[in-house]
Amino acid sequence: APRIELREVRFTYPGRAPALGGVSFEVPAGRQTAVVGLSGAGKSTLFALLQRFYEPESGTILVDGTDIATYSRAEVRRRIAYVEQDAPALDGTIGDNLRYAEPAAAPDDIEQVLRTTRLDGLVGRLELGLDTQVGPRGVTLSGGERQRLAIARALLRKPTVLLLDEATAQLDARNEQALREAIDRASEHCTVLVIAHRLSTVTEAEQIVLLENGRVRAAGTHATLVETD
Ligand code: ADP
Ligand code: ADP
C-alpha cells in the first residue's frame, strides 16, 4: 500500500468555495513528494487535514492503508510530524531543544538525528557523550539552522510521515543547500511531504503534485510537469 493515499478528499470552510474539491493522490513510502501551488491553492488545508485539525467533509485519507479518522489523536501525533515554516527554537542549547521535545530519547538517536540534519558539525567536538549543554544556544541559530533543528526534533519521534513547510526563500545558498540535504536524508527515514510555492525549488522531489484551486492539476516528476506546463 502507498504510505499516504487521498481519495476524493473534499473540504469547505463555512461560507466559502471548496478549499479542496475532491483531491486524490498517492504518496509512496520512503520518498519525497512535493505539493506545489500558488497561495490559496489548498496546501495548508491539506496539511491540516493530514494532522486531523479538521476532518474531510467527504473522502478518505489513508496512512499505511488505514483511514486516519480511526487513529487516536496520540497515534496521529506519533505518526505524522509537522515542521512549520518559521519553526522557533527554545532558548537553550541544541541538546536542550531535543531533550525537551523527546525527554526519553536515546543518545544514539540524538546523535543520528543531528547527523541527518547536518547539525552535528554545530554541536561540535562533543564526542558521543553529547554534552550538548556546551553547544551553541538555540537563539543564536540562523533561520536555516532553526528549521533543521525543528526537523531533528520531529525525527526524534520517529514519525512515518514528515510534513514540511518549505522555507528556502529567505535562506542563503549555503543554508538552502544544507536544508535540502537534511530533507533528502530525512526522506531515508520517513516519507516526506513538502509544501512548496514554486516548481523551480523542488527539482529533486521524486513526485510533485500540482494543486490549483483545490484540485490536482497535474502530478508527476519535475521533468514531466515542466514539459506539460
Ligand atoms: P500562503 O499559503 O501563501 O502562506 P496563506 O495561507 O496565508 O498564504 O493565505 C492563503 C489564502 O487563504 C489567502 O487568500 C488568505 O486570504 C486566505 N486565508 C488564510 N487564512 C484565512 C482565514 N482564517 N480566513 C479566511 N481566509 C483565509
Ligand atoms: P494555500 O496553503 O495553498 O495557500 P489554503 O489551504 O490556505 O491554501 O487555502 C485554500 C482556500 O481556503 C483559499 O481559498 C483560502 O482563502 C481558504 N481558507 C484557508 N483557510 C481558511 C480559513 N481558516 N477560513 C476560511 N477560508 C480559509
UniProtKB/TrEMBL annotation:
Keywords tagged on the record: ATP-binding, Cell inner membrane, Cell membrane, Membrane, Nucleotide-binding, Transmembrane, Transmembrane helix, Transport
Cell membrane recorded as keyword: yes
Keyword Oxidoreductase (UniProt): no
Subcellular location: Cell inner membrane
Domain ABC transporter, chain residue ranges per copy: 4-229
GO molecular function terms attached to this record: ABC-type oligopeptide transporter activity; ATP binding; ATP hydrolysis activity
Chief location of this protein within or outside the cell: membrane
GO CC annotation: plasma membrane
Highest taxon listed in the record's lineage: Bacteria
Protein family according to the UniProt entry: Belongs to the ABC transporter superfamily. Siderophore-Fe(3+) uptake transporter (SIUT) (TC 3.A.1.21) family.
Name of this protein: ABC transporter ATP-binding protein
Annotated source species: Amycolatopsis antarctica
Whole-protein coverage range: 343 to 571 of 597
